[in-house]
Design brief:
Distance between the termini: 42 Å
CATH topology of the largest domain: Four Helix Bundle (Hemerythrin (Met), subunit A)
Largest sheet: 3 strands, antiparallel
Strand order of the largest sheet: 1-3-2
Number of helices: 9
CATH superfamily of the largest domain: GntR ligand-binding domain-like
Helix content: over 70%
Number of strands: 3
Number of domains: 2
CATH architecture of the largest domain: Up-down Bundle
Structural class: mainly alpha
Order of helices and strands: HEHHEEHHHHHH
CATH class of the largest domain: Mainly Alpha
Radius of gyration: 18 Å
Length: 211
């Protein structure tokens, strides 16, 4: 069973990642307790957990506020993601080639279709969340559990920044997602890995250019 603290932590993390609580927003236990329908104790635990993850700033006698997006760390995060996701995309293609993919391609295609729909409907927060879902799904479907865990944390940090740049790079990103799925669908490991690595590198450059 999910505890109250875990539920509040997940909800607060989602609000930060989606930009509902933008960087610099001051937050108090009383306001969050009312927002999430709980007491202050689980809120206090959630704030500490997200401060440890770098999403919140805690200062003595000043309370908590949403941290600034760690732009200076993004180059390193993208470097890690480029290598790791090249591996996971290749492993997904390998599963397809081996006939062991199940509904893998259909699941990825569904996410890509939903991403384009969010773009057309001008829902940047939903698009950012779907972007993260696409990348974490490839990691999960690849069967590489350690990569999935690593990429979840890296992906959250990048989603935080990505949410501010979706209007500029959303269509480009989702078009590249389609190319990645197309390579996976035919079981081409080399092409899938290369397409993923190009996509991550282009995302890194795009974010840098719109800053």
């Amino acid at each position: 069973m999910v505890s109250a603290a875990e539920r509040v932590t997940a909800a607060l993390r989602r609000d930060v990642l989606d930009g509902v609580l933008p960087p610099g927003t001051r937050i108090t236990e009383a306001v969050l307790a009312q927002r999430y329908g709980t007491s202050r104790v689980p809120v206090r635990e959630a704030v500490r957990a997200l401060a440890a993850e770098g999403f919140l700033d805690l200062r003595p006698h000043a309370g908590a506020s949403v941290a600034q997006v760690p732009v200076d760390d993004l180059a390193d995060l993208y470097a890690v993601r480029c290598v790791a996701e090249g591996i996971t995309a290749a492993r997904c293609a390998r599963r397809v080639a081996a006939g062991d993919a199940g509904d893998l391609v259909a699941e990825l295609t569904r996410i890509v279709d939903a991403g384009f729909a969010a773009l057309e409907q001008d829902h940047p927060a939903q698009g950012a969340a779907l972007n993260t879902e696409f990348h974490t799904s490839i990691a999960r479907l690849s069967g590489a559990r350690s990569m999935a865990t690593l990429l979840r944390r890296v992906g959250e940090q990048i989603q935080w920044a990505y949410a501010t740049t979706v209007p500029q790079q959303g269509r480009r990103a989702w078009t590249e997602h389609r190319r990645i799925v197309a390579a996976i669908a035919v079981g081409d490991e080399e092409r899938a890995s290369a397409a993923m690595q190009r996509h991550v590198e282009t995302s890194r450059r795009s974010f840098r250019d719109v800053r």
